[in-house]
Design goal:
single chain, alpha+beta, Rieske Iron-sulfur Protein, FAD/NAD(P)-binding domain, 4 domains, 6-stranded mixed β-sheet, 6-stranded antiparallel β-sheet, globular, Apoptosis-inducing factor 3
Length: 602
């Protein structure tokens, strides 16, 4: 179906379409008025600042004001969760100034007081999202919303916070966005910005455009039947329904004039004519294009792979169906990938048996290293998961048309009522082969630091791209993770508007299994050593991944907020040497002060 916003007649803001140089920017950094053509009609637009109301609280009954502490109760660099009676706020003191924002991360509700404060922003301890303490704005991901910001005043050495009750209760704020000019001016087969893919990268791109004042037409298209949803939950919370994991409600897309075409597959892109051709023959012209198609799961190549009850988890319907069929049955997971292991963990309490088949001798060896992999494997074995390592599936056998057995190359035969395949994925870029867009030998779209392809006006983001990672000396890498897809989408949108913004974020990911969360920051590909502090057997540890004496990544279980702290150090451009690991641990947990590590250099 199409989600087509209602017609808007009045418009505040539109960003010019044509690329503009720095000389065309006004002194305050905003765009100077320019002529822009839509469907051949010249229009004159300019950016305007959103006015800041002198009194942001329109309803006095919705306002609460409370004294929360003495000015000397907090030292510089400290945070405190304070109660205003009808809700809590996070009070922060930095460089002698007090700030107050929402106390919970809008992503999954993590307590930000347990996060990391550094140079004007607070980083979530769970998943690494970052928020500006002065504005509450989200600066790094995951998540879509910012924090509410509250007024702080000092009177007679006491700190007072004045806040909206509604904001205290919601603990989230959606940034102000522009809307589209009258959609009646447009041909259905023509759009200014076309976004292929409706995952995190595509949605953040569309939202960022609106936040930056772009008020021309935006169309997103997806092969999925649903509006954008929280895809990581497909393997972490498998019985969730689409509406429960939706990133935004349908009304949001209507309100901000973001059109979504579901169950629409692009078959080809003509970059010279700027036309996307859909599988059903429909054609759409575009001015700017974002390709954010993500990955497609690999399938098995053995006999019986097409039979009923063999699944790749791609949609909420797939995940729901697996849970239903697996209840009190025998499940075989092929592949000890993140998806495979999360599915195995989720099904353990529901299925009669869960078995994992994997080619390596320990799970996650290439990602977490052998010692951490073995600790994770032991946790699974303690929860009744059976592993069949260093082997592959040779055949899937059926009985009356349904899966009955999984035959391994080792000769072992496993009873199986359901089989879930998690053996990796390939970029969904086959439709671009004849487009002229630069694709590498593995099928990934090659982009620069501004998420631009080799074709002017064509950008790419998310799991389907390789991009220069600043953390690894601008090595071209593929980082197929949720947080990075968000940031890709934002960077692409900013550069569609000619901001000249380069990506510099530190990769951050997480996985959750049996109530244990593994957090990870950095990019450890090619690590040559792992320095572990803590107890692997007790699943309370931090692992530093090094390459040539330099820490390139960190992972932890039950060691918060060490991963977020290291992420802040790496984000500051600081190099952590192997010899510094003990100092990092000491400073993180004994003093909480890592300021010496947040400057530039080593």
């Amino acid at each position: 179906f199409w989600v087509i916003p209602a017609v808007e007649v009045k418009i505040e803001v539109v960003i010019p379409e044509k690329e503009r140089s720095k000389e065309e920017m006004s002194p305050n950094g905003k765009a100077s008025p320019l002529i822009y053509k839509v469907n051949g009609t010249a229009r004159h637009y300019h950016l305007e600042e959103h006015p800041i109301a002198s009194n942001p609280y329109h309803n006095p009954k919705d306002v609460v004001e409370a004294s929360v502490c003495h000015v000397k109760d907090l030292e510089n660099g400290q945070m405190r969760e304070v109660d205003l009676g009808c809700g809590k706020a996070l009070l922060i003191k930095e460089s002698g100034e007090f700030h107050a924002v929402g106390h919970k991360c809008p992503h999954y509700g993590a307590p930000l007081v347990k996060g990391v404060l550094s140079k004007g922003r607070v980083r979530c301890p769970w998943h690494g999202a970052c928020f500006n303490i002065g504005t509450g704005d989200i600066e790094d991901f995951p998540g879509l919303d910012s924090l509410p910001r509250f007024q702080v005043k000092i009177e007679k050495e006491k700190v007072y916070i004045r806040a909206s009750k509604q904001a205290l209760q919601s603990q989230r704020r959606t940034k102000m966005m522009a809307k589209c000019i009258s959609l009646s001016n447009y041909n259905l087969s023509s759009t200014n910005v076309l976004i292929i893919g409706a995952g995190a990268a595509g949605l953040v791109c569309a939202e960022t455009l609106r936040q930056e004042g772009f008020s021309d037409r935006i169309v997103m298209c997806t092969m999925d039947r649903h509006l954008p949803y929280d895809r990581p939950k497909l393997s972490k919370s498998m019985d969730s329904h689409p509406e429960q994991i939706a990133l935004r409600p349908k009304e949001f897309f209507c309100t901000y004039d973001i059109e979504v075409l579901t169950e629409m597959q692009v078959a080809a892109v003509d970059v010279k004519s700027k036309i996307a051709v859909f599988k059903d023959g429909f054609k759409m012209e575009y001015n700017k294009l974002l390709i954010a198609t993500g990955n497609m799961p690999k399938t098995l190549s053995c006999k019986g792979k097409e039979m009923e009850n063999v699944f790749n988890i791609r949609t909420p319907e797939d995940a729901n169906r697996v849970v239903k069929l697996a209840t009190s049955k025998n499940v075989v997971i092929v592949g000890a990938s993140f998806l495979g292991m999360e599915v195995a963990a989720y099904l353990t309490e529901r299925a009669h048996s869960v078995s994992v088949v994997e080619l390596e001798h320990v799970p996650f060896k290439k990602f977490f290293g052998e010692r951490v992999g073995r600790a994770v494997m032991k946790m699974f074995e303690n929860n009744r998961v059976k592993f069949y390592m260093q082997t592959e599936v040779s055949e899937l056998r059926e009985q009356e048309g349904k899966l009955k057995e999984v035959v391994l190359k080792s000769g072992k035969v496993l009873r199986a009522d359901v089989c879930v395949v998690g053996v990796g994925a390939v970029p969904a870029t086959g439709f671009l082969k004849q487009s002229g867009i630069n694709i590498d030998s593995k099928g990934f779209i090659v982009v620069n630091k501004m998420m631009q392809t080799n074709i002017s006006g064509v950008f790419a983001a998310g799991d389907a791209v390789t991009f220069p990672l600043a953390l690894r000396n601008n090595k071209k890498v593929n980082v197929p993770h949720w947080q990075m897809a968000h940031m890709h989408g934002r960077i692409a949108a900013l550069n569609m508007l000619a901001h000249g913004t380069e990506i510099s974020t530190v990769p951050y990911l997480w996985t959750a299994m049996f109530g244990k969360s593994i957090r990870y920051a950095g990019h450890g590909e090619g690590f040559d050593d792992v320095v572990i502090q803590g107890d692997l057997d007790e699943l309370k540890f931090v692992a530093f991944y090094t390459k040539s004496d330099e820490v390139v990544a960190v992972a932890s279980i039950n060691y918060d907020p060490i991963v977020s702290k290291v992420a802040e150090v790496l984000a500051a451009g600081r190099t952590i040497r192997k010899r510094d690991v003990d100092i990092v641990i000491f400073l993180s947990f004994r003093t909480g002060d890592m300021s010496w590590l947040t400057g530039k250099g080593s």
